Amino acid sequence: MVKRLLLGMCVATIVAGAQTDIYTRRCVPCHQNLPTSLGEMFKNYLLMYSSEKFVKMGLKNYLKNPSRPLSVMSELFLDTYGIKRPTHLNDDDLDRAIDIYWEKFKVFDKLE
Question: N or C: lower Cβ tally within 10 Å for the chain?
Answer without folding.
Answer: C
